[in-house]
Amino acid sequence: MFSANTSNSEVREKMVGFLSFAMSSSVTSLNAIPTVGPTGFLSGFVGTYRFFTNAKDILQEGYEKYPNRIFKVALVDRWAIIAPGRMMVEDLMKATDDQLSMIEAAAETLQVEYTLSKEVVLHPYHVAIVRTPMTRNIATRFAEVRDEMVSAFADLIPAKDDWVKVPAYKMSFQIVGRTANRFFVGLPLCRNSDWLDLNTNFAVEVFISAMIINLFPSFLKPIAGRFLTRMPSSMKRATKHLAPIIEERLAREDEYGTKDWPGKPNDLISWLLDEAKAEQREVSDLITRILAIEVAAIHTTAFCNALYQLAAHPELVVPLREEVEAIVEESGWTKEGVGKMRKLDSFLKETLRFSGGGGIVNNRKVLTDFTFSDGTTVPAGTTIGVAAYMHHHDEAQYDNPYMFDAFRFYNMRNREGESIKHQTISPGLDYITFGNGRHACPGRFFAVYEIKGLIAHILMSYDVKLETEGVIPPYEWHGPSMDPSSTGEVLFRKRR
Prior knowledge:
Blueprint: H1 8-31, H2 43-65, E1 71-74, E2 79-82, H3 86-94, E3 100-101, H4 102-110, H5 112-115, H6 119-122, H7 125-136, H8 138-156, E4 164-167, H9 168-184, H10 193-213, H11 221-228, H12 231-256, H13 268-275, H14 283-298, H15 302-312, H16 317-331, H17 335-339, H18 342-355, E5 360-366, E6 370-371, E7 377-378, E8 383-387, H19 388-392, H20 408-413, H21 444-461, E9 462-466, E10 476-478, E11 481-483, E12 489-494
Parallel strand pairs: 2-8
Antiparallel strand pairs: 1-2, 3-5, 4-12, 5-8, 6-7, 9-12, 10-11
Helix pairs in contact: 7-13, 8-9, 8-21, 9-10, 9-15, 10-11, 10-12, 10-14, 12-14, 15-18
């Protein structure tokens, strides 16, 4: 581009020309993408407010107005690019990490620099821990997980002959928190009230803080982040619980001169220590990663949504209960047994399709200009996502998409040659709750077995219903995230 004889003024002129061309190309690419919502002066501020308060309608409008074509929504300091339809989902799935980055998109969405730590993005080795050793140990540790399910329900919802009202949202976090932590850190910490309170609240705070920080323009995000983050106080609480455990494990390694010392616990702390290198083995780094994994594991609304659906559909209890009873008698309370519960699996997957998807999933940061198969180019620096709720309620994807059909996927699996397809853990172009391709959620295996185990326990131990028969409390939209009612109640009594 430049020769040894090029003058400084020529260099400046050519650089200005190059940058002008790049900026012009970016603006041209964005202008070619249709806009939903306000445009023009201050559109970002107006659009951000509308998106925060009315994202569902905005996404639905774009999905219907521009089928199988990307559209954009103005936010305070950027454009949100929405990719609807199977073709777009497939294009995103096929893109390389050099083109589209899931990690950078997640860092931006969760504002991890303020809500967690840059390290979890710069060196995300813990993701591989979730994908391999954690998933591989589900069967080995399932008896302990099952024991915690029984104990948690007994403590939080004692089986009584009369109906008892239970706050569904709060209870679901408490039970999921205990169950997940039995798998992650074991007894007695998994039942420590301060540890559980920290994890439950921290998981919620990360998402709420990130959502608020994202309302600010880029130059104000550092200020908002410093005021909103709870990370320092959360780290202090977590260190009180985890530091002695980690330090004792490190001391055992030094004592025996090996990572495989006698009596080594088979849990998340050990799996992290097995893979951590150099400064990653520092106590603070390990605690940060444990908190990051806890956020992903505990901040799941799937169990609460499934509980609401079960309580709203009493006609499902008999077929689901009969399946669970037969399989438990044959295989016991094991991972293998839970895996055989096809009707229950279909019920959970339909719950996730019908009421479990947020407004935008599969977020990707565009690293280099990316062209979809229809010829539309999205410039580098923007973020692309998929409108999951609209995708899952598209008649092109599903018959009667606005009807809850608990055995929709069970019937699909009964078709010839499709017995292993359509499982809750199986991503597809029509089912994107857990993402797609190589970046599909690595923790989905544990999450699915955990939630199926929890629902199976309810079926075997309780009767459940809603205060108003068949009427699920209204869903709550927080920006582009759709959540179950945080105030709704489910009635429990001892199974009759």
